[in-house]
Amino acid sequence: MAVEEGKSCCVVLVPSPFQGHITPMLQLASLLHAKGFSIVINHSELNPPDSSKHPEFTFFPLKDGLSNNNPSFLNLFDIIPEMNVNCRVPFRDYLVQMMEKPEIYGQISCIVYDHLMYFTTEVAVHLKLPTILLRASSCAYMEAVCAFFALKAENYFPLPESQLLDPVPKVPILRFKDLPFDLISEIPEPKLQLFEKVVNLGFSVAIIFNTIKNLENHALSWLQKHYRVPIFTIGPLHKIASSQTSLVEEDTSCISWLNTQAPNSVLYVSIGSIVVMDKNEFIETAWGLFNSNQSFLWVVRPSSIEHDLPDGYLEAVGDRGRIVKWAPQKEVLAHPAVGGFWSHCGWNSTLESILEGVPMICRPCFGDQNVNARYLTHVWKVGLEIGPDDLTRCVIASAIRKLMVEEEGKELRQRVLDMKQKLQMSFRDGGSSHNSLKSLTEFISSRVCHYYKNRNERRTN
Ligand code: UDX
Hints:
Layout: E1 9-14, H1 19-34, E2 38-44, E3 58-62, H2 76-86, H3 88-100, H4 102-105, E4 107-114, H5 119-127, E5 131-135, H6 139-153, E6 167-168, E7 171-175, H7 189-199, E8 206-209, H8 217-227, E9 231-233, H9 237-240, H10 253-259, E10 266-270, H11 279-291, E11 295-299, H12 313-317, E12 321-324, H13 329-334, E13 338-343, H14 347-354, E14 360-362, H15 369-379, E15 383-385, H16 393-404, H17 407-424, H18 432-445, H19 447-460
Parallel strand pairs: 1-2, 1-4, 2-3, 4-5, 5-8, 8-9, 10-11, 10-13, 11-12, 13-14, 14-15
Antiparallel strand pairs: 6-7
Helix pairs in contact: 3-5, 6-8, 11-16, 16-17
The chain binds uridine-5'-diphosphate-xylopyranose.
Residues 18-21, 23, 136-137, 246, 270, 272-275, 299, 326-327, 329-330, 346-349, 352, 367-369 line the site of uridine-5'-diphosphate-xylopyranose.
């Protein structure tokens, strides 16, 4: 299909097939479209975005041969490398077709790609097209992964188990156990290679983060020195772009139930789109929620559990709890009845919760989530930490009461409300994210982009 008539500059976007990554990419697409670019989305067949929700974009599926998979963090490290191999040729062919017919497709200004879709840079460099990396996670996480590789080069790993709680020398706010690797064992080579590709910018001309400058000043400065390309911090995207991004139908019935609940009385529980709970954690969480005596709205994705709810559980909970398969999360967090969020600390959920002034119970699982949880509990101090060894119904119920009704919870709520107030300035006129988005638009349309493109061409010749 041809892009919109009359639009001469086109941005090609390549999201990865995970909800937490597709969301910021589609939000960015909406913003760039509003600035006058035509938009082409080259997506995988696995977990495709719903093109009918975005008639203003051109969608082109890349044959990945993976559409029968059900992505979760358990198969992520198999899916990603295969997708990067399978998508390369169809992507190259599509770009060549676009470049041969600029009168139909428009002139490609640049390609914005998700960090998990690293094949993009390899294709683009051959076609002499500039690429910009969009990170779906925080600056702090990217800094942490870079710190890991620097320490690895100094032969720091493997570590004895006794050191897992020690501070990481280059980023002392983190403990070794917050890094996304099992540091006491030999790290498998394919996993190392994947992470190396993901933090390697290749010839990309800039990085975009869905974050706010004031939230991550320190990590941002570090990345600016390390990567030496422009970095645009244009978050929180969900507050700046109105875009329908959900891959799954949202159960909006929970909003009518929330309407009947007292302010700040409901705990919202969700572990995002790819985390899976084992049987023990699921059962203990169920009884912990019940024993806390607090009202709750719990998202239980069918693909996130290996076991049914205990017999008689729903009857015992009665009207005090609601369980849905997928919630309209942003609306839920913005609802006055919601007073706390039990979360796996995905980056989107983290930003969504902070920007609604909702304090969190942090139960991270993998990847960037441990770093996010550490920042939530120890830097911004708006969350309580619950570790994998604390997952008994008794500890869970006590953590929930602490957040929802005790003094500590009140302090966390006040702090996150203060944070929300301050951060809101960033996306208003003249705020840091507002300005950064303006600079990004100019960067893409102006000579700056061409300058970096030419610089890269010189480097490759
Ligand atoms: C993944 C990674 O796990 C995460 O750590 C990384 O930062 C981004 O990619 P995911 O685990 O799905 O994402 O978590 P998160 O980043 O929080 O994204 C989930 C998105 O789904 C959020 O935007 C949230 O609003 C939405 N959601 C979740 C719903 O709309 N309804 C739900 O019921 C649950």
